[in-house]
Design goal:
5 strands, 6 helices, alpha/beta
Length: 181
């Protein structure tokens, strides 16, 4: 199995800077993807992704021969798609010029209150979800997490982006340093 990037979307592939430009009409978006399995939301979600951030991510993934695991709340958008979030996101990324991004899966969100303690804590931290994915998939390679949140274990290799700017070249450099250490 290849090394992996765990990918959040909001705050990584979009940002407040992006939304300001979008709302001012300064960004041109590609046409929504066509799909033999139309999924509600392509028209809206095509305008939620920043081309510059997607290009940075694509170059990073291709240069380092990585697979992608979606750890974003966007994973729930794929629940109505026959191929899950992978089938939902691939046409969106293709609309931005990234044919066949290597999305191999997504972390699960276990809503069983017995698994993580109390009923009040039915939503677990992403660090636990990533840990569970690693254990369930018997993953032993290197990985890096791109996310603007901080709900991870202390020793997990997180590159924390900012929602203000999203994914930057400095974030990519940090991620590559982690993978090359």
């Amino acid at each position: 199995m290849k090394n992996v990037v765990f990918l959040d979307i909001d705050g990584v592939l979009n940002s407040s800077k992006f939304y300001i430009a979008r709302n001012a009409g300064e960004i041109t978006f590609p046409a929504p993807p066509e799909s033999e399995h139309p999924v509600f939301g392509y028209e809206r979600y095509i305008q939620e992704l920043d081309q510059k951030a997607i290009d940075l991510l694509r170059d990073f993934v291709e240069r380092n021969d990585l697979d992608i695991v979606i750890s974003s709340t966007w994973r729930f958008f794929g629940c109505t798609h026959p191929r899950g979030i992978e089938g939902y996101l691939q046409p969106l990324f293709s609309s931005y010029g990234w044919e066949n991004p290597p999305i191999i899966g997504h972390t699960e969100m276990d809503l069983d209150p017995g698994k993580y303690g109390s009923p009040e804590r039915m939503s677990v931290e992403r660090g636990e979800e990533i840990h569970d994915w690693i254990m369930e998939n018997e993953f032993s390679g290197k990985y890096v997490i791109l996310d603007d949140d901080s709900d991870f274990f202390e020793l997990q290799p997180l590159v924390r982006t900012s929602f203000e700017f999203g994914l930057t070249e400095d974030d990519i450099k940090k991620a590559e340093e982690i993978l090359n250490s």
